[in-house]
Structure formats: structure tokens, C-alpha cells
Amino acid sequence: MEERGLTQQELSEATKIGAAALRNIRENTAKRFDKGTLCALINYFDLESLDELFTIMYNSRD
Prior knowledge:
Blueprint: H1 8-15, H2 19-26, H3 35-44
């Protein structure tokens, strides 16, 4: 969003994804991702894969 100068509201309106869902994704508090939400984001940002949307980081537990 920052790279494209988009607000959360603008992205919500363009993708029909609720503002709360976008906020949870941005704040890394989403517990699960709806397939439709992921597809809408991939299509909107014209991505080729889910890897371009997220970086998965694992926490090691000692």
C-alpha cells in the first residue's frame, strides 16, 4: 500500500475487502486468511504468486 500511495480505505473500496480485515493483515493480527481476500489482493496488485504478498517468518522456541 505504501509503495502505491494507497490508504486502507482506498484499498478496501477497490478490492471490496473490509477495512477490519485489511487492518488485521497490516497489523499482523489476522488468524486466518480467506481465499477470496488473498485472490483479491493478488489480482489488485497484479502479483504472480502469494510469495509476493507475504513474508513468512518462523519463531524458534527454545
